[in-house]
Design brief:
The protein is α+β, with helices and mostly antiparallel strands. About 25% of the residues lie in helices and about 25% in strands. Helix 1 links the parallel strand 3 (about 45-50) and strand 4 (about 80-85). It comes from Amycolatopsis dendrobii.
């Protein structure tokens, strides 16, 4: 094998090129009003997708507050954005539980749930890690804390760690919204 294909001229070291994993894809879940939805339900909308659960006390409250602020900062452009809060705890997070939990949030945040298999498939599609950990009070669900920005045809655009400020997320979203 010719190693020069991976070595910039004169560098003397190999450059490793890793393929970018596919993020997102098809899904069939139930929203917080009890309606079955698929990726096609949101076709034409930009999506902010976050995975969490209603009993989360550390990661989810600030993440949802950040998404609230992003949607507010986007103003009129925000009408083209739908936020999806996908539970990682479908055993406890029914549509009614999600609806009550999100009632005080921005109206463009929709909760999604489904069977354990459907949620597992969605987690895999977004490379999200969450697992049940039993404890004396029942169980916890440690999980990834990324917000994904998806384009209007369901294409992955970018993602944000939970340390990224809402103004920076809104600015990035505005750049994508402005060119399309």
């Amino acid at each position: 094998m010719n190693s020069s294909c991976c070595t910039p001229p004169g560098s003397g070291s190999a450059t490793i090129v890793r393929p970018v994993p596919t993020v997102g894809g098809n899904f069939r879940l139930i929203d917080d009003s009890g309606t079955e939805v698929t990726e096609q339900s949101y076709f034409g909308k930009y999506l902010l997708v976050f995975f969490g659960f209603t009993r989360c006390q550390t990661v989810c409250p600030p993440a949802l507050a950040r998404i609230d602020r992003v949607l507010d900062k986007l103003g009129e452009l925000g009408n083209r954005v739908q936020a999806l809060y996908v539970t990682v705890d479908p055993e406890r997070d029914t549509p009614d539980v999600l609806h009550a939990f999100l009632a005080a949030r921005h109206p463009r945040i929709t909760g999604l749930t489904g069977s354990a298999e459907e949620i597992e498939s969605m987690k895999k599609a977004y490379h999200v890690h969450a697992r049940r950990v039993d404890d004396p009070d029942g169980y916890r669900m440690p999980h990834s804390a990324f917000t994904f920005l998806m384009g209007p045809q369901g294409e992955y655009l970018t993602h944000f760690a939970d340390t990224v400020d809402s103004k920076d997320i809104a600015a990035a979203a505005e750049r994508f919204l402005a060119v399309r």
